Amino acid sequence: MITPESVRVSGVSRTEEIAADPNRVIVFDTTMRDGEQAPGFSMTAQAKVKMAQVLRDLGVDVIEAGFAAASPGDEDCIRRVAGEVEGPIFCSLSRANEKDIDATFRALAPAPKSHRRCHTFIGTSPIHRTAKLKMSTNEVLSTAVRSVEYARSLFDDVEFSAEDAFRTEPEFLADVLEAAADAGARTLNVPDTVGYATPQEVRERFAALAARIKKRHPHVIFSAHCHDDLGMAVANSLAAVEGGARQIEGAINGIGERAGNCSIEEIIMALKVREDRYGVTTGADSRHLVRASKILCEITETVIARNKSVVGINAFAHEAGIHQHGMLADSRTYEIMRPQDVGFEGSWFVLGKHSGRHAIAKRAETIGRPIEGERLAAVVAGFKQRADQIGEINDAELIAIIDRVDGVSEVVAQYA
Ligand code: KIV
Ligand code: ZN
């Protein structure tokens, strides 16, 4: 039986070590919990271990590996992940009750004590209190406090979430979060559970909460957990950082309940590319982003949009002639990050009807068929005609066009 006495924790947690740098944003990945909760994203234990390995390589700080009390299977999955992958802090979600917190404790037992986090939550908004929990504000507050106290008897590192925070009365939200901090929560998560808030509201709410609660708890870490129902999850997470949040929760490819969560690849690159604006860093090695995205697609048998920010196959592809010309002169004309920095080998040009002579000539040279002058003009004309018919022109098609112009190819007949 688990008793507080049997497990009382001491020493510095990994979270405290990271948070010693005030400009460091903790990256909390919930691909395997909030992400997995969404239809179509269920994962086996083996898949979770594989996903956790790439998340470790990516350098996320916290991996929420599941919701231990959800099923015995999920408890086992979390236990396997926590035992087989070393490095990050491991976390499991728990409702605000002892049974869930005990399940989290059992699931995280294989991880070192300094790397275990209990994440407990309760709904705080009027609609959650009345329709779902059937609790008064006092009951919600005292349940939150009791669960944090119990979690702290088992874990040094406890995160408390006020579910549906952005539809909660600001005063009551601050009361609950402050009470959770008083009870020992080290991280206070302020979720926009239904993706309702706007960036300005988020920035102001975080700033106001920090102004009040940091007076009593200067070291408490504020965390953002934004959903994407209105497409603002990443913008809201960035606004939270401006308001003082130092933990961002998200998921690879932005998966999660309904429209999903803040996309980890987008937030990591936004903070990196615009460090000038946000002035914070993460511990991420962004070169693993594409691999993480691909592994998740394989595991969940899903595809992402071609134009998905950062990791989509169009993210560093160029077809328009004006863009290809600019890219050939200097890639900074049309790219704000290097493809290698997110794990692609490089940018690439897609040849199609929008491509111009510079890109066609460059590609011809690359494939060993240099063309210039009148020959180039004739190839460009043949190229445009063919592109109108079939869209993308691959190398074989380009060779065929050049051959036709040179009058040497058997493919000539197709174009006659
Ligand atoms: O969206 C949400 O509020 C959550 C909490 C449980 C953190 O996922
Ligand atoms: Zn969520």
UniProtKB/TrEMBL annotation:
Span of domain Pyruvate carboxyltransferase: 25-290
GO MF entries: 2-isopropylmalate synthase activity
Pathway(s) of this molecule: Amino-acid biosynthesis; L-leucine biosynthesis; L-leucine from 3-methyl-2-oxobutanoate: step 1/4
CDD domains: DRE_TIM_IPMS
Keyword Manganese recorded: yes
InterPro entries from the UniProt entry: 2-IPM_HCS-like, AIPM/Hcit_synth_CS, Aldolase_TIM, LeuA/HCS_post-cat, PYR_CT
Classification via SUPFAM superfamilies: Aldolase
EC number in record: 2.3.3.13
Protein keywords: Acyltransferase, Amino-acid biosynthesis, Branched-chain amino acid biosynthesis, Leucine biosynthesis, Manganese, Transferase
A Pfam short name: HCS_D2
Superkingdom per UniProt: Bacteria
Gene3D superfamilies found in the cross-reference section: 1.10.238.260, Aldolase class I
Leading EC class: transferase
Protein's GO biological process: L-leucine biosynthetic process
Entry's family note: Belongs to the alpha-IPM synthase/homocitrate synthase family. LeuA type 1 subfamily.
Protein name: 2-isopropylmalate synthase
Organism: Brevundimonas vesicularis
Lineage, top ranks: Bacteria, Pseudomonadati, Pseudomonadota, Alphaproteobacteria, Caulobacterales
